[in-house]
Amino acid sequence: xxxxxxxxxxxxxxxxxxxxxxxxxxxxxxxxxxxxxxxxxxxxxxxxxxxxxxxxxxxxxxxxxxxxxxxxxxxxxxxxxxxxxxxxxxxxxxxxxxxxxxxxxxxxxxxxxxxxxxxxxxxxxxxxxxxxxxxxxxxxxxxxxxxxxxxxxxxxxxxxxxxxxxxxxxxxxxxxxxxxxxxxxxxxxxxxxxxxxxxxxxxxxxxxxxxxxxxxxxxxxxxxxxxxxxxxxxxxxxxxxxxxxxxxxxxxxxxxxxxxxxxxxxxxxxxxxxxxxxxxxxxxxxxxxxxxxxxxxxxxxxxxxxxxxxxxxxxxxxxxxxxxxxxxxxxxxxxxxxxxxxxxxxxxxxxxxxxxxxxxxxxxxxxxxxxxxxxxxxxxx
Length: 381
Ligand SMILES: [Fe+2]
Ligand SMILES: [Fe+2]
Prior knowledge:
Shape: globular
Bound molecules: fe (ii) ion
CATH topology: Ribonucleotide Reductase, subunit A
Number of strands: 0
CATH architecture: Orthogonal Bundle
Pfam families: AurF
Largest sheet: none
Order of helices and strands: HHHHHHHHHHHHHHH
Protein name: Ferritin-like domain-containing protein
Distance between the termini: 51 Å
Number of helices: 15
Oligomer: single chain
InterPro entries: AurF/CmlI, Ferritin-like_SF, RNR-like
CATH class: Mainly Alpha
């Protein structure tokens, strides 16, 4: 008996990973210290915004197998179809020494590494959201959370399909794994949500947005745009629930959360420097890391990763002196004035525009086929 396949992948019947470096363990277990699973016996969910979000979550479900055109080819030499300035080590001595084939290899490995972290992060989101369904106290939040569990499974599937097509993947970055461990094993439901949806996925959301807006590759553009459309609902949930919850906490409890946010932001900014890629490609790892750390383009890129986190923390009321100081030192405090509703409305619009363009292309193809058939019929008669 073969394994059940996923439709739409052509020859590759299941998600098949070609890890760039050996993965010694096929899994990871972490101790969950939360003993609390909460049931509610009053089923009359009250909060209209959450029920509206649950309703929207139900209506906006989509199938990664057919909404995305998986027959599109990925260019192995430049998978994202972006200029070389987007490559982290562009301009370094190592880059200058490379010929076209080696540069193509760097581009492919960078995309494999980045999308692999998206994939593993999405699995983290899947597990975290399932946990939130268990321990969030209110029934309306559990309803909404259930739709998000399905969204996150779809995101894992979609990034997994992309990496299967690319033919290369990387294991989870150790810093991302450490961060996941912290947020997942905390017994407080809000920390799981804050760490996963506001910080880790907030940063990923900004990265998806940069790719969506810069890539010349239609597959990567559609994939990221559709995931972002779902993420807009996830951020909205965090804003509604956490904004109502945090004023109920003591100043000390809020401060503890702010410290956690500041620390996680420093960690995410400074520690994801793709060292595994440089090592795998046989470059001088220290030299590559210090180049990526200091390159002006990369510094600007890392700042842009905070466009979603900063205004969200402000919105949910975790914006005291420690968080403000951290963001000021990182040079990203200016993002506090980003219009979150505006950018998320744009995320929805972009996904819908891609759908519309695909429908229009299918209609044009059908019309052409009808023309050809009519011409043949006329000729035959
Ligand atoms: Fe997600
Ligand atoms: Fe999410």
